[in-house]
Amino acid sequence: MADVTDDEGLNWVAAIMGWLVPGLGHMWIGHVQRGIFAMVGILGLFLGGVLIGGVGVVDRKDNHLWFMAQAGAGPIAFAADWVNTAWVKSGSVGEMLDAPTPMVPRSTGAKVSSLRSVTSVHEIAILYCSMAGLMNVVVLLDALVRPRYQPPIARPAPVMP
Q1: How far apart, in whole angstroms, are the C-alpha atoms of residue 124 and residue 129?
Q2: 60's torsion region: left (phi>0), alpha (psi -120 to 50) or beta?
């Protein structure tokens, strides 16, 4: 594998690969165990948030500030947003219900999917997915500056007189 670094020793290929698949950047530069730990932690946290609150917690339109943090997890965040927009919010999956507004509780203007989580469950799930994205940004920065793994050199055993 060619080591693609710039003059300052930054490994941009590892950072890009780590954004595409969390942990893959570390595996690319030879730190396989570190990459596996990062992958399990980040994807576990992101998928845990989706399992807790449903795919509706990743929403680029309604929660754009939270989505900026979630996007750090990579293409999985954009895929979850696409599933949310194309299937859940459009009514293709689940039933669309009337969404009451605080000022007019019996209003029938807005519709919301029956699959959308509510209250603190929704907020905690958004936080899980956002923390996964922010955690991956930290892992990306580590892969960007971490040198390629060099296996230890085997030294001959000392000869006893």
Answers
A1: 9
A2: alpha
Q: How far apart are CA 111 and CA 42, in angstroms?
A: 33
pLDDT tens for 113-148 read 666 677 789 899 999 999 999 999 999 999 999 999
Q: How far apart are CA 66 and CA 61, in angstroms?
A: 10
The structural domain count of the chain equals: 1
- Residue 153: inside a domain: no
Whether this prediction's pTM lies above 0.85 is answered by no
Q: Per the domain annotation, does 158 fall within a domain?
A: no
Q: Give buried/exposed letters for 24-48 (b at 16+ CB in 10 A, else e).
A: bbbbbbbbeebbeebbebbbebbbe
Residue 73 falls inside a structural domain: yes
CB of 88 closer than 8 Å to CB of 117? no
Give 61-92 pLDDT, tens digit per residue: 989 999 999 999 999 999 999 999 998 877 76
